[in-house]
Amino acid sequence: MPKGSWKSRRHGRRNQRQNSRFREHDSNERCNTGVEQSPQDPGHSTQEAPSTSSSTAGSSVPDLPGYYFDSEKDRYFRLLPGHNACNPLTNESIKQKEMERKRLELLEEEDKQQKKIARMGFNASFLLQKSKLGFLNNNSYCRLAHELRVSCMQRKKVQIHSSDPSTLANDRFNLILADTNRERLFTVNDVRVGGSKYGIISLHGLKTPTLGVHMHENLYFSSRKVNSVCWASLNDLDSHILLCLLGIAETPGCVTLLPASLFVNNHSAGDQPGMLCSFRISGAWSCAWSLNIQANNCFSTGLSRWVLVTNVVTGQRLSFGTSSDVLAQQFAVMAPLLFNGCRSGEIFAIDLRCRNQGKGWKATSLFHDSAVTSVKILQEEQCLMASDMAGTIKLWDLRTTKCIRQYEGHVNEYAHLPLHVHEEEGIMVAVGQDCYTRIWSLQDATLLRTIPSPHPTSRSSIPSVAFSSRLGGPQGAPGLLMAVQQDLYCFSYS
User: Would you state the pLDDT for residue 473?
Assistant: First the structure.
């Protein structure tokens, strides 16, 4: 046989073996089962398909575009598009599984660790020694002592007593709001059949070791969503509750002034509950009650591109045009100012002495990069705390209109989440969209405590909290109240 034919046959066999190896390699890449050794593909673009890996911390397993590595099963799985029940493995389900794993780990760690350290090197004996030597003044000692107590809070479930216990097991907490003296909680509960019902929890029975409270309910029921709520001092301090209700279908939205006495069942013959007032104000995003003497008996509502200030007694209204939706409001007490946070990220103050609707009523203007969800004025009214939908929390100096401090760690993407500022204890509390409750030091923005939710994380079960060093009144127990799903928890000082 000619030499050229032998060469061609050897060359053909070699090409056949190479082609078979290439086909086997391609089939392994397309296969959605596990691989024993992670392939290296540096030339593959990472923008073609999303990649997620559960082994992110200190792992040598590379991320493959379009695949997910399960560290428990030690294999790759292909990510499927869509979010329906037919596709069990999606980016959203993987993220939810990872968040749930971290939550359970933190809960287990909190149950095991009785004493947590807020600041390295700080303990009760160290603070007491520094105070006796004169290195700490009284204010600094009290502030640091509160930080130590906050780091040692322990979770306990609160027993809720009611005239109708069956409703407590079915109705889910939407929000809780403490009054000025921390003696009562106004609650909004989502009813399973749809709509909301309201109640007031008395905190006078909140004493350790037995934690029990009583729920005062009312037959008042609304099928409309509650956009905003605040306590109102019309007759006495916190005598009413102001509610902004969203309109549905043919039912327009409104603002309702609800007497707190409607929820007390032991009225005497001469003590009748107050009257319920409703105002035709639809589309209100936020509300605030004024304790300023120059705006007595007035409340404000933030609308789409408008701010309304209404006098409850006379019915007189002042309107101020804005360039964006007003999502957060608070009145100053000493200065005649109303602070507003907008969807555009602007924070501005309205001078209430300007009765006309022309120019000159805007007193202060600050800016965030995202929609502002909460504004809180500090007691001396020289600083303002604000949070937005990007998870940014800033402390602003109103005199210089500059940010003087930023608090890291808050998580928010689109939710309307409040801030809880407690200057007496020197802390600030906020619940993130990831359902974690975080506590910071007001003094230096140190993150003191991160508390996971007792229930699985979901968009519909973000906890609502209330904090005070005197829950239930002057002789009450200090701690944090957390309402999530159908349960109420108390994180009391140890």
Answer: 80
Which residues 6+ apart lie within 8 Å of 149 measured at CB? Answer: 478, 493, 494
Residues in the chain: 494
Residue type, 475: Q
- 140-150 pLDDT, tens digit per residue, is 777 787 788 88
Q: Virtual CA dihedral for 239, 296, 465, 95, nearest 10 degrees?
A: 130
3-state SS of the chain?
A: CCHHHHHHHHHHHHHHHHHHHHHHHHHHHHCCCCCCCCCCCCCCCCCCCCCEECCCCCCCCCCCCCEEEECCCCEEEECCCCCCCCCCCCHHHHHHHHHHHHHHHHHHHHHHCCCCCCCCCCCHHHHHHHHHCCCCCHHHHHHHHHHHHHHCCEEEECEEECCCHHHHHHCEEEEEEECCCCCEEEEEEECCCCCEEEEEEECCCECCCCEEEEEEEEEEEECCCEEEEEEECCCCCCCEEEEEECCECCECCEEEEEEHHHHCCCCCCCCCCCCCEEECCCCCCEEEECCCHHHCCEEEEECEEEEEEEECCCCCEEEEEEEEEEEEEEECCCCCEEEEEECCCEEEEEECCCCCCCCCCEEEEEECCCCEEEEEECCCCCEEEEEECCCCEEEEECCCCEEEEEECCCCCCCCCCCEEEECCCCEEEEECCCCCEEEEECCCCCEEEEECCCCCCCCCCCCEEEEEEEECCCCCEEEEEEEECCEEEEEECC
Residue 278 Cα distances to 107, 228, 234, 307, angstroms: 44, 15, 14, 18
Q: Whole-number mean pLDDT of the chain? A: 80
Structure tokens at 364: 């202060």
Neighbouring residues of 324: CB distance < 8 A, sequence distance ≥ 6:
305, 342, 343, 344, 346
Give the C-alpha separation, 343 to 341, whole Å: 7
Q: Write down the pTM of the prediction.
A: 0.78
- For 262-319, what is each residue's pLDDT tens digit? 887 544 444 455 667 889 898 899 999 999 999 999 999 999 999 999 999 998 999 9
